[in-house]
Amino acid sequence: MNNDDKKEELKDLEGLKKQCEEYLNGWKRAKADLINYQKDEQKRLDDIVKFSNWDLVRDLVIVLDSFAALERSMEGEPRPDRLGRDLAGLLMIRNQLEDALKRRGLERILVTVGQPFDPSLHEAIGEVESDQPVGAVAEEIERGYLLSGRVIRPARVQLSKSKNS
Question: Under CATH, to which class is 106-165 assigned?
């Protein structure tokens, strides 16, 4: 191998070394960009989670305002002549709350006495003697709810048992 060939090989080697450094630096930049992107995405997701209920909370503040107005109207000595108005106010506030939640996909699980027990919608918390068929719903103890079709709380019910037990 002569000197010219050695010089040519060294030149090629230097070019390859330079190319490797360029690739390595490009990889390092891409890795840093990916890390920054992941951090930005995590911050964006954190904000989405933090503020996802913003519109619900805004509507619930209106309900709280209604409670505050009702409390102000009830200040002082209780008077029998105001009971009807106070009850109407409470019912109005309950309706406001139900409407705000319904707009976001909340619906009540409808329970009727005598319907068959459905473990996907009901939670049995006891049994009572009843004229209903054994194992059927005899009484709803606590309402259950669905959120966009998914059970978030089953209806708590008592089941019918025979009167002879």
Answer: mainly beta
pLDDT in tens, 96-155: 888 888 988 899 999 999 999 999 999 999 999 999 999 999 999 999 999 989 999 999
Three-state secondary structure readout of the chain: CCHHHHHHHHHHHHHHHHHHHHHHHHHHHHHHHHHHHHHHHHHHHHHHHHHCCHHHHHHHHHHHHHHHHHHHHCCCCCCHHHHHHHHHHHHHHHHHHHHHHHCCCEEEECCCCCCECCCCCEEEEEEEECCCCCCEEEEEEECEEEECCEEEECEEEEEEECCCC
User: Is the pTM for the entire model greater than 0.85?
Assistant: no
Rounded to whole angstroms, how far apart are CA atoms 144 and 77? 37
Rounded to whole angstroms, the Cα distance separating 154 from 44 reads: 33
